[in-house]
Design a protein that fits this description.
single chain; alpha/beta; 7-stranded parallel β-sheet; 8 helices; binds NADP nicotinamide-adenine-dinucleotide phosphate
């Protein structure tokens, strides 16, 4: 299938590694020129080189903290009017809500709700004018089934999802769609750091905790970030103009509900 994306321009936030990088690479393989972002310049430059040399598209790296106004302005200035916006940022830390004060909540809401909303605000009207736009928010399986120790993530991401549920019904008549992609366990640095943390906490060997985690998933494994990237590219495609306001869970079947 030709996804119809050749020559489009995308901003992919938080994309030097992991799921953001996978989305950037899948879009680049479809001929999309990119602005990619993360805080660490060296890793970001290496990722930009890797994507350029594999795909030949233009890749502009912008090292900045996307959760800050200055960071968002730098990313937006590098792209002009994007056709595609992939919102992503690091996830908030785990913990007990009794330990979180106002600052902890503001940080989580800034990173995992307001940053995406401000990026959409800055780009959606020009997408509407040009009659093409695709926004994908990388959120979490926690939007569908909250994870007890990730209350900051459950709350902030649910806020973003609720906001986009409303807006996405307004933009679709202009061929501008807004959807969520909800990762379950994907084999990224964050995932392996989490396994290491659990192994240290439980005193069990890393390999044992990893094997148990994978065996507990109906697919018997963690997701491959490339699978996530390709789903993202499809949602961004010219073929997906009738899909909006949806939240696609990618978790190997872990969520036990019928719908
Ligand atoms: P990852 O492998 O740790 O990669 C995170 C990427 O985001 C890196 O490129 C990182 O680069 C960048 N980043 C983090 N904070 C940033 C900021 N403030 N500004 C700009 N860039 C930033 O993580 P991942 O697994 O891909 O996770 C991506 C998102 O999916 C996170 O929100 C995570 O909570 C969520 N998620 C992941 C999984 C999973 O299993 N992987 C499951 C559920 C939800 P720098 O550190 O250099 O900035």
């Amino acid at each position: 299938m030709d996804l119809g994306l050749q020559g489009r321009r995308a901003i992919v936030c938080a994309a030097s590694k992991g799921l953001g990088k996978a989305c950037a690479l899948s879009l680049a393989r479809e001929g999309v020129d990119l602005v990619i972002n993360s805080r660490s310049q060296d890793v970001l430059e290496a990722t930009a080189d890797e994507i350029r040399s594999e795909t030949g598209v233009t890749v502009t790296p912008v090292a900045a903290d996307i959760t800050t106004e200055a960071g968002r302005q730098a990313v937006l200035a590098a792209c002009g009017d994007p056709d595609i916006l992939i919102n992503n940022a690091g996830g908030p830390p785990p913990g007990d809500f009794r330990d979180w004060d106002r600052d902890d909540w503001i940080k989580a809401v800034d990173a995992n709700m307001l940053t995406a909303i401000f990026m959409i605000k800055a780009t959606v009207d020009s997408m509407i004018d040009r009659k093409f736009g695709r926004v994908v928010n990388i959120t979490s399986a926690a939007v569908k089934a909250p994870i007890e120790i990730l209350g900051l993530s459950n709350g902030a991401r649910a806020g973003l999802t609720g906001f986009c549920a409303g807006l996405s019904r307004k933009t679709v008549a202009h061929n501008v769609t807004i959807n969520g992609l909800l990762p379950g366990p994907f084999a990224t640095d964050r995932y392996f750091a989490n396994i290491r943390f659990q192994a240290e906490k439980s005193g069990k060997p890393y390999e044992e905790v990893l094997a148990a985690r994978e065996a507990a998933n109906p697919a018997g494994r963690a997701g491959d970030p490339a699978e996530f990237g390709d789903a993202c590219a499809f949602l961004c495609s010219a073929r997906a103009g009738f899909i909006t306001g949806q939240n696609l869970l990618m978790d190997g079947g872990s969520y036990p509900g019928t719908l």
